[in-house]
Design a protein that fits this description.
The protein is mainly β. The chain has one domain: Metal Binding Protein, Guanine Nucleotide Exchange Factor, Chain A. The chain is built from 1 helix and 10 strands; from the N terminus they run E-E-E-H-E-E-E-E-E-E-E. The protein is globular and about 45 Å long.
């Protein structure tokens, strides 16, 4: 097994930092309502590692536990300062930790998404062609430089 550090990441405020060791076990997009509510978005991106290969470097996390409609227990962990959802453990994946795909430092999306689940609750954008597309935003005016961990491509 490789012990090479593949990536680091953290929360929005920078309080929580983590690193992963080795290769991800799998990565996927989930459209379930739990992921939509957890992310406040149309879907969640989960990058799963063996739990022993995820190390918290700094910061404090709060846990929230719930049971899904199929009876599976889920424990999510988020930054106590900014609320960024970083990690979760699902009892159907023992010994694994899911990490929010967008929390990795750039280049953020280095992993290979190889599965898509709960397409039954897939959000609107997948059903309609989006016409207005912009490189940034029509109202974007750069006034400062973000730190490297927050820079987009």
């Amino acid at each position: 097994m490789s012990h090479k550090i593949l990536n680091q990441g953290g929360c929005s405020c920078g309080n929580v930092r983590y690193k992963t060791i080795g290769k991800e076990e799998h990565a996927g997009v989930c459209h379930c309502r739990y992921c939509q509510l957890r992310t406040g978005s149309a879907f969640g991106i989960s990058v799963y590692f063996k739990s022993k290969n995820v190390e918290l470097l700094s910061g404090e996390l709060k846990k929230f536990e719930y049971t899904t409609e199929s009876g599976n227990k889920v424990t999510t962990q988020f930054c106590i300062e900014c609320g960024t959802s970083l990690f979760w453990n699902v009892e159907i994946f023992p010994g694994m930790t899911g990490i929010g795909g967008g929390t990795f430092d750039p280049p953020t999306f280095w992993y290979n998404i190889n599965r898509e689940v709960f397409c039954r609750s897939k959000a609107y954008f997948s059903k309609n062609e989006i016409v207005a597309k912009f490189h940034t935003s029509p109202t974007f005016k750069k006034i400062k430089d973000d730190p490297p961990r927050k820079k987009g491509i």
